[in-house]
């Protein structure tokens, strides 16, 4: 998510992105990571530029040895990846697991925003239709 990204200016006036996030280091399904980023960091600006972000993701993935996916294949991956965030993650994330049983408001608000963003992303990427077509 954006909170885990450092934007570093380059000598040519551009930017490099450095990602720092070791909380759940694991090999995972690319669509899950991409949908997490777009849902957790989703705002009006990122949604307006989502096509551009997806094109950049596709070209970078292919140029670094990953699959050369079409736009439709990337959105299929997003739909599959968003299934986890919509169906599995929001409820446990919203549970109060603090020792005093008083959930911190900032964390609660953060996960409520994420849950709303995950559902909106799944709708944007037509998760139900895409998953149905894959079965």
Secondary-structure blueprint of this entry?
Blueprint: E1 5-9, E2 15-19, H1 30-40, H2 44-48, H3 50-63, H4 71-87, H5 90-94, H6 105-124, H7 127-134
Antiparallel strand pairs: 1-2
Core attributes:
135 residues, mainly alpha, 2 strands, 59% helix
Can you offer a commentary on this structure?
This protein is mostly helical. The chain is built from seven helices and two strands, in the order ββααααααα. It has helices at 30-40, 44-48, 50-63, 71-87, 90-94, 105-124, 127-134; strands at 5-9, 15-19. The chain has a two-stranded antiparallel ribbon. A hairpin with a 5-residue loop joins β1 (5-9) and β2. α1 (30-40) packs across α6 (105-124) and α4 packs across α7. It is globular, with a radius of gyration of 16 Å. The chain starts with a strand and ends with a helix. The mean pLDDT is 80.
Summarize the structure in short.
By secondary structure, the protein is mainly alpha-helical. Helices cover 59% and strands 7% of the residues. It has seven helices and two strands, in the order E-E-H-H-H-H-H-H-H.
Oligomer: single chain
Instruction: Estimate the global geometry from the Cα principal axes.
Output: globular
The SSE order reads: EEHHHHHHH
Distance between the termini: 30 Å
How many DSSP H or I helices?
7
Mean pLDDT score, rounded?
80
The strands making up the biggest β-sheet line up spatially as: 1-2
The radius of gyration is 16 Å
Helix content: 55-70%
């Amino acid at each position: 998510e954006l909170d885990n990204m450092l934007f570093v200016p380059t000598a040519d006036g551009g930017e490099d992105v450095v990602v720092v996030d070791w909380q759940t280091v694991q090999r995972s399904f690319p669509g899950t990571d991409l949908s997490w980023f777009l849902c957790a960091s989703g705002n009006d600006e990122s949604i307006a530029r989502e096509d551009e972000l997806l094109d950049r993701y596709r070209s970078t993935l292919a140029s670094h040895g990953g699959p050369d996916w079409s736009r439709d294949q990337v959105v299929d991956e997003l739909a599959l990846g968003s299934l986890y965030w919509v169906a599995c993650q929001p409820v446990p994330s919203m549970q109060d697991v603090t020792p005093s049983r008083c959930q911190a408001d900032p964390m609660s608000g953060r996960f409520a925003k994420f849950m709303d963003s995950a559902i909106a992303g799944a709708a944007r990427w037509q998760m139900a239709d895409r998953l149905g077509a894959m079965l």
